[in-house]
Write a structure and sequence with these properties.
Blueprint lengths: L1 E2 L7 H11 L10 H15 L3 H4 L12 H5 L5 H10 L4 H24 L12 H9 L9 E2 H5 L6 H13 L4 H7 L2
Parallel strand pairs: 1-2
């Protein structure tokens, strides 16, 4: 559970703090040329075992393509074509393409069809609202504010590690999102 008080937030000082805290990554280089190098490296070196090793945190088998896709430096259709043309095993291609295309499109469609409520509890199905309401008054062992979450100061070593990785490398392994959503 996150506590916040946006009504009293000093937006100007928060923007200044964000600017001062902003670090550029020395791991990821921007631009289309860099994006293509990362894609080609991934296809040549990591795609072959992607289905088996992508969720192993220190394997280095993640694609690292998300920021390039997000900021428009890579077109997902071009990625699909290159992956399909590769000599990687079908199981590896299928695992990667399921994450790139299916999950991405599900997210885009969800936001499109729930554009007014996608970021509120109103978008949840009734069974989820009911379950959450039934547990509304459950005792919470830990309650964190934004600062503790942002600085990786929680009881959860996995959250803290992922948060540090996000702050210092500007990436988080995709499998971690499955962990924090449970």
């Amino acid at each position: 559970i996150v506590e916040h008080n946006l009504v009293y937030m000093d937006i100007s000082s928060e923007c200044t703090r964000a600017y001062d805290d902003c670090r550029t990554s020395n791991i990821l280089e921007g631009g289309e040329d860099a994006a293509l190098r990362v894609l080609n490296y991934f296809i040549a070196n990591n795609l072959n075992t992607y289905d088996k090793e992508r969720n192993i945190p220190n394997s280095g088998k993640q694609s690292l393509l998300s920021p390039y896709i997000h900021f428009g430096m890579l077109n997902p259709i071009m990625i699909v074509v290159k992956v399909k043309q590769s000599e990687a095993p079908k199981s590896a291609k299928d695992a990667f393409l399921e994450e790139l295309v299916v999950r991405r499109e599900l997210a885009h469609n969800f936001v499109y069809y729930y554009r007014d409520t996608y970021d509120t509890f109103d978008c949840l199905p009734e069974w989820a609202k009911k379950a959450m309401d039934e547990h509304r008054h459950d005792k919470r062992e830990y309650i964190y504010g934004y600062k503790e979450l942002e600085e990786g100061c929680t009881h959860d070593v996995y959250w803290n590690a992922a948060q540090f990785e996000l702050v210092f490398t500007h990436k988080v392994p995709s499998f971690f999102f499955n962990c924090i959503c449970k």
